[in-house]
Design brief:
- The chain is an all-alpha fold.
- The chain folds into 2 domains: about 80 residues; about 70 residues.
- About 55% of the residues lie in helices and about 0% in strands.
- The longest helix has 16 residues.
Length: about 180
Amino acid sequence: MTNNDILRRLRYTFDYNDSAMMGLFALSGYDATREEISSWLKKDDDTDFKKCNDAMLARFLNGMIVDNRGRKEGEERKLETRLTNNIIFMKLKIALDLKAEEVLEMLSSAGVSVSKHELSALFRRPDHKHYRECKDQILRAFLKGAQAKYRGEPVEEDSPESIESVGQSKSQSSGFSWE
């Protein structure tokens, strides 16, 4: 998934208008312009499209955390310049103040079955021996589940090709392949 796609999905899920998005960026210390936000939200083939880099998406997600949870006491955390799906997933989990059971429910509503142990592996430090990389499929399913939960819309079923391409099989106990 691209940063622009994630930004578009979050805007739709939480019904953020341009002012709200500018406010979230401001909470993280960046004054985003309406033109910047508009260019990040354009379709990839639009002439005015601009890629949203990792630092900008990190600022947006940090703004969501501050907006929903409040500013953390003490020293400001260093801004990430490189994002992974794991970091994005963790930031969204924190911003939405979700417990593991709620995340699992959201994934399940999008048709992805993950055990609590597999989920916790996604939120570990990369140097931990049980760390697992969060694939696009999991992040996409989480965003679909969030849309269902926060907008009250049913989740669209994935096509058989997309499920097959990520290695899911009915015979696996969790329904998800880490390979």
